[in-house]
C-alpha cells in the first residue's frame, strides 16, 4: 500500500511539472490557454491610442492638422446721434465727436481640403468680412480670400497662397450610421484647437429653419461658438461633416449639434472651385405643406405631396401650365413627400432640362413637361 501511494505521488508530481513547463514554454498546446493567449495578443497594448481601448489618438493625428482657425473683421457703421448735427453744438465742440469707422471681429474654423490652399468653412463665418486671416496648425498666419460661397447651404470656399498644406481625407456618407463615434474639431470660444467626442445622434435632419437646403448630421459631440466651419470626423479621422449650428438657449453646447454632410459639402465645394458659384434648378413656385385638414378638404387619400400656393408669372412652372391649388406628387419620377423634398429634387435638376412632373388637379392626374430654369441668387425664405 505504501509503495502504491509513493508511485501515485511521484506520478502527480511529474505530471504537474510537465504541465508547468508546457504552460510556460508552449501555452498554445493547451486549448483553454490558447484562447487566453490569442486574446492577449489581439488586444492593443496600453497607451497605443487604439480605438479598441477607447482612444482615438490616430484619428486626431490624421485630421487635426487640417483644421484651421479663421479670424475675420469688417467695418461697422455705428449710429450717429442727432445732436452731432446741431450747428450750435458743432460751433462749441467742433468735429471731435464725428463717428470714426469701427470694426467688428469674428472667429470660426475651417478645413483644408486641398494641398493647394483651398479651405472649406461656413458662409456665416466669413459673411461680409473684408479681412480674413487663417491660422494654420504649424503656426503660420495667412491672408485668405473668398473664392465663392453658397448661403443656401451655409458653405464657403477660401483660398490662401500656400502649397503642400495637410489636406483632410474625405469620408463616405454611405457607411455612416446612427450610433457611430464622431469627433468634432475646431476652435470653440477662441480657446484654441479642441477635440470633442460623441456619436451620430440622427441623420437627415431638416425642417429646422437654419438653411434653405437642410440634410444635417445631428451629433452630441460638444459644438460651441467658434466651432463653426470645423471638421466632424469619423473614428478613422476622415471628414464626414462641416460643423455648422447648435441648438442652445444659452449659447453653449446642449448636446444637439448639426453638421453639413460631406457629400453635400464636397459637391458644393467642387462647383465653387470650378465656376465660383453654385447652379441649381428652379421652376418659380411657392409651396406649402399639406396638413391633415387640407388633405381632407381636398379629398386626398393622405397628406403627401406639396400644395402649390403660388406661381411666378413667366416662370418655368407658369409656362408648363402649373396653377395655384395643384398638388405636386412627383418630380422626374421621384416622389414628393413635402415642400422640402420638392425643393431638394428641383434644385438637383440641371437648368435647361425638360423633366416630367406629376400633379393632382381636383380629381385628375396631370403629367406636364417642365423646362427647368436656373435658381436666382439666394432668398432667405425656403420657398421654391
Automatic annotation (TrEMBL):
Please name the Pfam families in this protein's record. Answer: PDZ_2, Trypsin_2
- Any one Gene Ontology molecular-function term assigned to this protein's record: peptidase activity
SUPFAM superfamilies for this protein = PDZ domain-like, Trypsin-like serine proteases
Write out the entry's keywords from A to Z: Hydrolase, Protease, Repeat, Serine protease, Signal
Gene Ontology terms describing biological process: proteolysis
The reply to whether Repeat figures as a keyword in the UniProt entry is: yes
Q: Which domain of life is it from?
A: Bacteria
Q: Is Protease one of the keywords? A: yes
Q: Where is the PDZ domain?
A: 272-338
Q: What InterPro entries does the record tag this protein with? A: Chloro_Bact_Ser_Proteases (IPR051201), PDZ (IPR001478), PDZ_sf (IPR036034), Pept_S1C_Do (IPR011782), Peptidase_S1_PA (IPR009003), Peptidase_S1C (IPR001940)
What's the protein called, per UniProt?
Answer: Serine protease DegQ
Amino acid at each position: 500500500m505504501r509503495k502504491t501511494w509513493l508511485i501515485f505521488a511521484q506520478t502527480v508530481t511529474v505530471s504537474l511539472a510537465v504541465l508547468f513547463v508546457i504552460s510556460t514554454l508552449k501555452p498554445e498546446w493547451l486549448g483553454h490557454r490558447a484562447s487566453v493567449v490569442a486574446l492577449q495578443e489581439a488586444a492593443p497594448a496600453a497607451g497605443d491610442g487604439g480605438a479598441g481601448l477607447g482612444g482615438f489618438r490616430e484619428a486626431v493625428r490624421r485630421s487635426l492638422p487640417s483644421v484651421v482657425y479663421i479670424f475675420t473683421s469688417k467695418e461697422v457703421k455705428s449710429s450717429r446721434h442727432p445732436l452731432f448735427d446741431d450747428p450750435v453744438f458743432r460751433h462749441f465742440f467742433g468735429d471731435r465727436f464725428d463717428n470714426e469707422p469701427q470694426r467688428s471681429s469674428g472667429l470660426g474654423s475651417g478645413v483644408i481640403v486641398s494641398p493647394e490652399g483651398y479651405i472649406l468653412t461656413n458662409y456665416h463665418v466669413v459673411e461680409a468680412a473684408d479681412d480674413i486671416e487663417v491660422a494654420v496648425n504649424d503656426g503660420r498666419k495667412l491672408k485668405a480670400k473668398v473664392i465663392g460661397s453658397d448661403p443656401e447651404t451655409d458653405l464657403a470656399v477660401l483660398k490662401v497662397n500656400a502649397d503642400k498644406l495637410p489636406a483632410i481625407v474625405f469620408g463616405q456618407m454611405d457607411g455612416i450610421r446612427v450610433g457611430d463615434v464622431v469627433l468634432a474639431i475646431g476652435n470653440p470660444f477662441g480657446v484654441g484647437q479642441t477635440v470633442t467626442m460623441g456619436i451620430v445622434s440622427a441623420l437627415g435632419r431638416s425642417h429646422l429653419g437654419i438653411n434653405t437646403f437642410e440634410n444635417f448630421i445631428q451629433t452630441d459631440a460638444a459644438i460651441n461658438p467658434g466651432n463653426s466651419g470645423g471638421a466632424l470626423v469619423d473614428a478613422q479621422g476622415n471628414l464626414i461633416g462641416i460643423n455648422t449650428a447648435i441648438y442652445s438657449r444659452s449659447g453653449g453646447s446642449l448636446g444637439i449639434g448639426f453638421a453639413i454632410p460631406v457629400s453635400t459639402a464636397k459637391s458644393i465645394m467642387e462647383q465653387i472651385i470650378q465656376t465660383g458659384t453654385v447652379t441649381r434648378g428652379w421652376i418659380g413656385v411657392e409651396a406649402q405643406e399639406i396638413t391633415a385638414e387640407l388633405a381632407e378638404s381636398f379629398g386626398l387619400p393622405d397628406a403627401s405631396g406639396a400644395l402649390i400656393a403660388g406661381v411666378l408669372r413667366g416662370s418655368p412652372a407658369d409656362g408648363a401650365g402649373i396653377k395655384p391649388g395643384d398638388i405636386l406628387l412627383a418630380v422626374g419620377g421621384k416622389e414628393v413627400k413635402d415642400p422640402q423634398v420638392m425643393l431638394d429634387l428641383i434644385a438637383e435638376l440641371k437648368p435647361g432640362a425638360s423633366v416630367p412632373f406629376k400633379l393632382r388637379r381636383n380629381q385628375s392626374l396631370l403629367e406636364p413637361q417642365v423646362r427647368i430654369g436656373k435658381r436666382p441668387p439666394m432668398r432667405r425664405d425656403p420657398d421654391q
